[in-house]
Amino acid sequence: MRRRLLAAALLAAGSACAQDCAGTWDGTLGGTPLMLQFNWDRLGSYYLGTAMSGAVLRPRQVDPQAWDEYDPQGHHTATLRLACSDAAARGERTGAQGERAALQARRAEDNSYNARRLAAVELVAQRALPENGRVLEVVAVPGFAQLSTVRIRQPRGGEAAVNARLRSALLQQLDNHLQCQALLRAQGRFDRPGGDRLTLQRLEWHGSILSLQFWLHGECGGPEPYAGAQQFTFDTASGEELPLPRWLLPDYFQGVAAGTPLHAAVVLPQILRGRKALEDLPEAKRACAEFELAEKAVPLAVEERGMVFGFHYSTALASCGLAFVAPWPQLQEFLSDDGRRWREAMRTAPQR
């Protein structure tokens, strides 16, 4: 997604940073497995075992080997002294009551900080979604109900691969959410720790073709929040993911631009909201239309009536929110060979 902030890149910097401890570390605190990370500003975080909750570390400016530890609520819980080399880190944590525990760790791959706890996640069902005789369910990360996806119950054949892909995408978003919150808390921003929300917006399952659209909204310390659609379309018979641009001719792989035949046939009438010209639009709608004319329309989903198109709006123009269905008969001449084949798969009921 264009405006999605990659918090991991901000928090988990590599060993090329000036501070020796910068990067990701895998080790133990006392006898408990630990994952630890620091960025180039010496801001850090760690968690124990596979816990979803961890601590953040704020550097002491007068001592380059000392940090103050805080819990997610902003309470000071400990101090940490740490010495790092190219390959190893050793130190000691002293708790608020004076209890001490040794810390030792070795360097790990960048961007591996959350891998251990992500692998241990067991998604929990929130609600069932009957869909044309099939049963799906909305599932979420325990403790993070705002991050959800869809799972097919009792998967058969390619449906197991569909479930795996949707789980992977959700865990990637959880990774971003956790990194973002760790960064903001390490900066001392405990009152509004930021993070992501991912919710189901549209679900269509026709024949063997499953099309899903999610809405992502988040903030990670930038001047404005980020938001946008995430889309997945699958052939559930094979488990293959079917990128929506590939349903169209190669000229439209990057979107539907003004001046192209597909734009003139199905997009422009929607932008003009039934008017003949831009000048005929009410002033309140004109800014939206001007933006939409300058941007490429992109496919968002497929459904029984046709393909859903929309735009990637800036946060300031999110209220424009134009999304429309281009009927299959109008799209027929603009479909690729793959698109025609997948369209036919929407007509055939899968064997269950």
TrEMBL record:
Signal peptide (residue range): 1-18
Keywords: Signal
PROSITE patterns: PROKAR_LIPOPROTEIN
Domain of life, source organism: Bacteria
Name assigned to this protein: DUF3298 domain-containing protein
Organism: Ramlibacter alkalitolerans
